[in-house]
Amino acid sequence: MTQSLSFDGRPRTDFRRTALAGYAAIALLIGGFGYWAASAPLAGAVITQGTIAATGGNILIQHHEGGIIKQLLVHEGDRVREGQDLILLDRTAAEADLNRLTRQWIALKASAARLEAERDGLSTLAPIAEPAPAPFQQDFENLIREQQKEFDARLARFRSEQSILAQRVAMHRESVKGLNAQKTA
Description:
55% helix; 185 residues; elongated; single chain; mainly alpha
């Protein structure tokens, strides 16, 4: 006996039965889990430690110039008031900048005194009306002495140049007189 299979050349495109079987399996799985969740007794719970942190009330604080924190005056969980000091900054960097800028200011004041004396044709530096801060007074006096020495040296060079130019003018005048005398002779 021979059994024959027939094939008409077209693939089967009806997957309706397979899809219904898949949907039924998913519905059965979800229904079974729901039944178990509703009817299964829970005999206990797991208790653990935890921390609750506020997320909306935190405020970022920043210093305009930055710096190194010397001391923290508040801690986690402290309540703070407006205007309350929160940290102390290390003053070393700020004081170093202040000292550097003060020395620069002193040097500029001494240089300005020399330049004003040169401009006004004085024979010595004019007294400075605004004194240096007390810790820098010695530096200021040293700078004034240095500027006075530079002023004296520049004044001596200026006078020497004036003298040389006066001698050259006198020499040219004599030369002109000699040429005029030759011309008339």
